[in-house]
Automatic annotation (TrEMBL):
<dbReference type="GO" id="GO:0016491">
    <property type="term" value="F:oxidoreductase activity"/>
</dbReference>
<feature type="region of interest" description="Disordered">
    <location>
        <begin position="1"/>
        <end position="31"/>
    </location>
</feature>
<feature type="compositionally biased region" description="Basic and acidic residues">
    <location>
        <begin position="1"/>
        <end position="15"/>
    </location>
</feature>
<keyword id="KW-0560">Oxidoreductase</keyword>
<dbReference type="Pfam" id="PF13561">
    <property type="entry name" value="adh_short_C2"/>
</dbReference>
<comment type="similarity">
    <text>Belongs to the short-chain dehydrogenases/reductases (SDR) family.</text>
</comment>
<dbReference type="InterPro" id="IPR002347">
    <property type="entry name" value="SDR_fam"/>
</dbReference>
<dbReference type="InterPro" id="IPR036291">
    <property type="entry name" value="NAD(P)-bd_dom_sf"/>
</dbReference>
<protein>
    <submittedName>
        <fullName>Uncharacterized protein</fullName>
    </submittedName>
</protein>
<keyword id="KW-0521">NADP</keyword>
<feature type="compositionally biased region" description="Low complexity">
    <location>
        <begin position="19"/>
        <end position="31"/>
    </location>
</feature>
Length: 308
């Protein structure tokens, strides 16, 4: 068994060196390895942070990607970055303006892939954390509604139209990944009640969808990131050192997470490698939700993001 595997690995290395790539692990980090070869993916919130990093990884692994975002200028910038970061892509990449809180927008995005052979992977990732979000007393109702409309309804619409498309194309295997958050699992004394409630809803909704559609071959998993070094959080924290310290002291690894670290998890969940992983609260947090007293000393270096 072991020698068969070695033989297989050796052949893969040989094939890779013959076709000019850098081996099975894509040593230069750019060559396609095909973990998503032939799959068509919709990524919402694709123009920034986790969505852009995921777009790049998906393209490098042979997928075709439709980047969806509410911001057209951001999409224009992001697709140029994605093409540059995935120069050997074998699939296609396109953009579409899409406000996930509008069902017709989400439907149009998913149906755009009908001409590509139909959707295989849906990453419902777009979300907001509004600066006026606060505690039970001070959160304005309009911020509550806006947050639920984007963060919860957006994921519902994405899941709904993904299932409809998968059935339309008679797909037997599919992966839907919904971005929740660590705050769906642990309480925070620095409240953003509307956001927290929305992410709890994403977690519960994803779990139920996973069970409902399990025998159709459609897997649903929720991604639970820790606080990240992306504009969503970093713009909100700004230069406020006290606000930063309140969070940083809880990080076992001594740093915020990077978008690429979430994207790597999404890639695995999207691929057939995770075929028996369904309904999980997939936590990517550097150990934060498992920590009591955290270590002291310098933080290990983070990986580099691909899109900046
Ligand atoms: N950054 C964090 O610390 C953190 C932690 C946990 C969970 N998350 C979640 O991860 C997801 C992605 O966050 P990020 O950090 O990459 O954020 P980001 O702000 O870098 O990117 C989010 C993208 O979503 C887009 N967007 C906003 N509203 C939209 C709408 N209505 N329709 C379509 N697109 C819309 C934005 O234009 C932006 O490009 C969000 O759901 C967020 O709640 C983030």
């Amino acid at each position: 068994m072991a020698s068969d595997r070695n033989h297989y690995e050796l052949n893969r290395h040989t094939d890779a060196s013959q076709n000019g790539t850098n081996g099975v692990n894509g040593v230069n980090g750019v060559t396609p390895r095909g973990r998503l070869a032939g799959k068509n993916a919709v990524i919402t919130g694709g123009a920034g942070g986790i969505g852009l990093e995921t777009t790049i990884l998906f393209l490098r692994e042979g997928a075709s990607v439709l980047m969806c975002d509410i911001s057209e200028p951001a999409l224009k910038r992001a697709i140029a970055i994605a093409k540059k970061a995935a120069p050997h892509m074998t699939g296609k990449v396109e953009t579409i303006k899409c406000d996930v809180s509008k069902e017709s927008d989400v439907q149009a995005a998913v149906e755009h892939l009908d001409a590509w052979g139909g959707l295989d992977v849906m990453f419902n990732n777009a979300g907001i954390m509004h600066s006026d979000d606060a505690d039970a007393i001070d959160t304005p109702e309009k911020i509550w509604d806006l947050t639920q409309n984007i963060n919860v309804k957006g994921v519902w619409y994405g899941s709904k139209h993904a299932v409809l498309a998968l059935r339309r194309h008679n797909k037997k295997v599919a992966s839907i990944i919904n971005t929740a958050s660590m705050v769906a699992l642990v309480g925070s004394a620095t409240p953003q009640l509307a956001y927290t409630a929305s992410k709890g809803a994403v977690l519960a909704m994803t779990r139920e969808l996973a069970i409902v559609h399990a025998r159709e071959g459609y897997r649903f998993n929720a991604l639970c990131p820790a606080p990240l070094n992306t504009p969503l959080l970093q713009d909100w924290l700004g230069d406020d050192q006290e606000k930063r310290h309140r969070r940083e002291v809880h990080f076992p690894m001594g740093r915020f997470g990077e978008a690429i670290e979430q994207a790597q998890a999404v890639l695995w969940l999207a691929s057939d490698e995770s075929s028996f992983v369904n309904g999980t609260d997939f936590v990517v947090d550097g150990g934060l939700t498992k920590a009591y007293v955290t270590p002291e000393g310098p933080a290990p270096a983070p990986p580099n993001n691909l899109g900046r």
